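haha ok so turns out i had the wrong file open the whole time. this is the CORRECT one, sorry everyone. sequence first:
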Amino acid sequence: MGFQKIKSDSLTDKFIEQIEGMILSGELATGEKLPSSRSLCEMMGISRPVVSAGIGKLESMGFVEVKPRQGTFVSDYRRKGSVETLDAIMRYNGCLMRREEVESLFQVRWALDELAVRLVIERAKDAEITSLRTYLEQALEAATAEEEAQAVFLFYHELTVISQNMIMPLVYHSFKSASEFLWERYIGLTHVGQLAEDVRGVMDALEARDEGSALEAVRSNWRKGMELLDEIAQ
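then structure:
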């Protein structure tokens, strides 16, 4: 692959995309030192501010580490990355995720959903719980997998908002693109309307303030996803 000259209106984004690709493909190995900023400018036909901005972004995503007076080195993004790093991996894989990545996301989302359900039943007002039906109705009326996935995301995100946990909505929103993508895959493997019907069970239990039934509905929904894990991850 090598370092190629960049021609684009968004040079920083293209620089980041190229370095990401070289790291994810293994062309740049963990611990490997990148060429100096001056060398990168010459090889790629870009300015030093573009390189500086790109390296800063790559470092924030866990792809590289800048060591003072030593240079820039490729990091182990599994140890230093963020959800933003997951988005970069998905872009590199053509918006696909490997099986272990899908399974890991399922596990995290499952835990968040269960916590949100417990907190909502404990803390939320009846009117706040009833407001969730707006998103459920949007999902039930969706004509496409994309529309249904977006409405279901809004349902679960609002669930975290009314849980009164200040951090959970922020964490949950960071999974937006990955969650919607996986839900679209699930709908494609079942049918439009299936995901919304799954959510209906959670909604009914929340309105009844039946924690046991709400948790079982969440677990049932994620078990359905796990049963299709290999196909979703293809």
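The chain has 14 helices and two strands.
again sry for the mixup
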